[in-house]
Amino acid sequence: LTLTSATHSLLREGRTGQLQSVLQTSQQEGMVSLDQSLAAMVKANLVSGSAALAESLDPEHFKVTISGYS
């Protein structure tokens, strides 16, 4: 998470539930979500899909994301 005006406003206003959306739409600013990091580690064979799935924030979407990696 990079502190930008958008993330600063969300944090200040206590709207932390919307941070995931900012992470997903701010990749060009270097932001990466937990699930994106986990998927990259699965793709690089650094962790198993099942171990990453256990830590994923959105398991159903994560299953779809990594389905072609193994």
How would you characterize this protein structure?
The chain starts with a helix and ends with a helix. The protein is mainly α. It has helices at residues 5-12, 19-25, 34-43, 49-55, 59-66.
Structure keywords:
70 residues; mainly alpha; elongated; 0% strand; 5 helices
Query: How many helices in DSSP terms?
Result: 5
Taking pLDDT < 50 over at least 5 consecutive residues as the criterion, the unreliable ranges are none
CA radius of gyration is: 14 Å
Q: Tell me the helix content.
A: 55-70%
Q: So what's the overall shape?
A: elongated
**H/E element order:** HHHHH
Would you tell me the overall average pLDDT?
A: 92
Instruction: List the quaternary state of the chains.
Output: single chain
**Could you tell me the number of beta strands?**
0
Strand fraction equals: under 5%
Largest sheet: none
